[in-house]
């Protein structure tokens, strides 16, 4: 297995050094960079495309949650912080793990084992560099709630004004990007533009119904019904070869 590329974003030099010492015990992981604030971390992540992010939450100017909000796609994230009050909030983000400072060697090793198991079970997406693989995560913040969501778990994107509503599980938060911006980054073999307003995940389609004027209606596993425009219905039939 190739080495796991890791990045550390932490404002304390001492804490960064302690993390690097812990990581040295795990030869599978290579630290490809470190940053002491959010803006430097953002640039580092975009340049190095790491598999794993060790992220402090409480940093000056911008916090770790704001960094996640800036990223188009989020590496596997392990929060590191001295403030356990953030624990519940971090799990709302669906963080991969959460380590409380000072970090215990045994607890750190358990977290790394989880990382290795997860990476071994993930089939990495192939394709254009700017297209998200199905197992990549995106960050969504809507009001006080925040999520890290795998692309494959999103079954519907829908225009709401200048923004986009994202449907996964029982959640329907707003993402502050246009549908066209999102469509450019979605894998086209799985996501299909049903009409001007909606993009569906064909892996979440339960039933395809013939509709009037040559159009199709889709029933999603969630129970949502989506009408495919006439033009897109012909393309959809060809895509699914029926």
UniProtKB/TrEMBL annotation:
Domain of life, per UniProt, equals: Bacteria
Which positions carry 4-aspartylphosphate? 56
Phosphoprotein as a keyword of this entry, yes or no, is yes
Q: Which SMART domains match?
A: LytTR, REC
InterPro entries registered for this protein in UniProt = CheY-like_superfamily, LytR-like, LytTR_DNA-bd_dom, Sig_transdc_resp-reg_receiver
- Per UniProt, residues of the HTH LytTR-type domain are 138-242
The segment(s) forming the Response regulatory domain are: 5-116
**Mind listing the UniProt keywords for this protein, alphabetically?**
DNA-binding, Phosphoprotein
Q: Name one GO molecular function term.
A: phosphorelay response regulator activity
Q: What is this protein called?
A: DNA-binding response regulator
